[in-house]
Design brief:
- This protein has 498 residues and is of the alpha/beta class.
- Helices cover 34% and strands 17% of the residues.
- It contains 17 helices and 16 strands.
- It has an eight-stranded mixed sheet, sandwiched between helices. An eight-stranded mixed sheet has the order 6-7-5-4-3-8-9-10, sandwiched between helices.
- α3 crosses α13 and α14 runs parallel beside α16.
- It is globular, with a radius of gyration of 23 Å.
- The two termini are 23 Å apart.
């Protein structure tokens, strides 16, 4: 049976222009050789073709989901928008019940979640749709607890965004911004419970810095060189803490990045830090997280992601990357559903300096990958995150250094893979480093809408020139010469002789 290694290089897009292209500026003999001498396809990695709004760049989580499931991810965003347009949203029983609970108990409703223009985890429109229901029910004791982004939108984009939201709240006379907290704390998904505790304590105990306004809060943090992602838990309205008899609605429609914060609200036996045992609170999520709390909508379960499909066929699999990226190549790649299989191995490389050192832990990661190849896995997925991380840095030299390190390590990985008879497929989940300036020649630290490469490191294959991220899983399954699951929406890019 064939053995295949999928090597995912974050932040590598295709851009033939020289200006602002850090990839072309770097010395990359390995990647240059691969793209010149092996089958190469250009894949759409943004916008409507992968389930995002038109001309919207992707994120690592969304793209890995598309890669592994061969399906688009953002159905919750689209589904709720459709419900709002056809007015069915305003009749949702769980939303109405949540507001009624607060009315009947003379208490408050708390809307909790990310506030961002990216629409990846939540939508501004969804907050205002809930507020419209509250206003129609003549209820205005609604507090909004926002997690600031700085990751999927501009690093200091929250000030302008929240000023606009505040103006709209004043016009509709429903809803008050109660607190702000960077997603670094509130949306941790790597069991950093010290961060989650700070976000929880802010919401429940009112622990945090007090500010007179959103503007005062953000400007103080910006002066201290803290971007939106790292805003410390901050109280804007001292009356906004969650109390007995209140209603809580979590507005993120993706579970993984908020489940650590949600759990202490419903789990009476929670042990990671001290919690408050509330009396008579009503907890709802906009989209289903689990069966422990109420939910307004739910997504269809993903059947036959590449990981689950190969697991069902008894394939021996491994996933390996640095700790802060492991969810991308497990939880998201596998369709937001964990694989429980003795033949499925997860290897994480510890790293605590991802904002500082362009090497990250790439030496340890590469060496560990070389080691596990000896164990004859049928399918290995490895993510090298360096380029994606440092495409967000204002230090272009750090980015160039990271590109050259990834290039060098890619050469070592391919050399070892060939010795052990692995087929190697190389791709990227999103572009970034290839366009470090925008159309107006201003610095650009956001992901791009450029296509990304797909390289099969074997000249015996022929592949079509164009595809999308949804075509990666069917292509790999076709390389294994097994049937492609009917649930997958992509197609194999292999061109086979008749």
């Amino acid at each position: 049976m064939k053995k295949i290694l999928l090597l995912i290089l974050d932040g590598v897009g295709i851009n033939h222009k020289e200006e602002g292209n850090a990839i072309k500026e770097a010395n990359t003999p390995v990647i240059d050789n691969l793209m010149s001498n092996y089958p190469l396809s250009s894949l759409v990695a943004s916008g409507e073709e992968i389930g995002l709004p038109k001309e919207t760049s992707s994120t690592s989580e969304v793209s890995h989901y598309c890669i592994g499931t061969s399906r688009t991810m953002l159905m919750p965003y689209m589904q709720i928008n459709k419900m709002i347009r056809n007015k069915k949203f305003f009749d949702n029983e769980m939303i109405i019940a949540s507001i009624n609970h607060a009315i009947n108990n003379n208490s408050s409703l708390h809307l909790i979640g990310l506030i961002s223009s990216a629409n990846i985890h939540s939508s501004i429109n969804h907050y205002f749709a809930v507020l419209a229901i509250a206003k129609a029910m003549k209820f205005n004791r609604v507090y909004l607890h926002f997690f600031t982004d700085g990751k999927e939108m501009k690093e200091q984009g929250s000030l302008k965004l929240l000023q606009g939201i505040n103006n709209k709240l004043n016009k509709i006379e429903t809803g008050t911004i109660g607190s702000l907290c960077g997603r670094y704390y509130a949306m941790d998904h790597n069991n950093n419970y010290d961060r989650i505790k700070k976000a929880y304590d802010q919401l429940v105990f009112g622990v945090g810095n007090n500010f007179s306004s959103v503007k005062a809060c953000l400007e103080a943090h910006y002066k201290s060189n803290l971007t939106d992602e790292y805003i410390n838990p901050s109280i804007i309205d001292i009356n906004s803490t969650i109390k007995d008899n209140d209603s809580i609605m979590f507005m993120n429609y993706r579970e993984n990045d908020i489940k650590e914060l949600v759990e202490p609200f419903y789990n009476k036996n929670y042990k990671n830090f001290q919690i408050k045992n509330f009396n008579n609170i009503y907890i709802t999520s906009l989209f289903k997280y689990n069966n422990n709390i109420n939910y307004c909508y739910e997504n269809k379960e993903v059947i036959n992601s590449i990981g689950h499909y190969l697991s069902s066929l008894d394939f021996k699999q491994a996933r390996i990357t640095e700790d802060f990226k492991i969810k991308d190549i497990t939880y998201y790649l596998d369709g937001e559903k964990d694989i429980k299989d003795n033949n499925y191995n997860i290897i994480t490389i510890k790293n605590k300096n991802k904002e500082i050192d362009p090497k990250l832990n790439i030496a340890s990661l590469t060496q560990e990958l070389l080691n596990i190849m000896d164990e004859d896995y049928d399918f290995i997925v490895c993510n090298l995150p360096n380029i994606g991380v440092f495409s967000k840095s204002t230090n272009i030299q750090k980015l160039i250094d990271s590109i050259e390190l990834v290039d060098f390590c890619t050469g070592k990985i391919i050399e070892r893979a060939k010795d052990l008879f692995y087929e190697v497929v190389i791709t990227s989940p999103y572009g970034a480093a290839e366009s470090m300036i925008d159309s107006k020649s201003n610095p650009n630290y956001s992901n791009t809408n450029n296509c990304v490469p797909l390289i099969i490191c074997n000249e015996e294959y022929n592949i079509t020139n164009n595809g999308t991220l949804l075509d990666i899983a069917p292509t790999i399954i076709d390389m294994f010469d097994i049937k492609i699951p009917s649930e997958m929406n992509g197609k194999s890019l292999l061109i086979k002789e008749e």
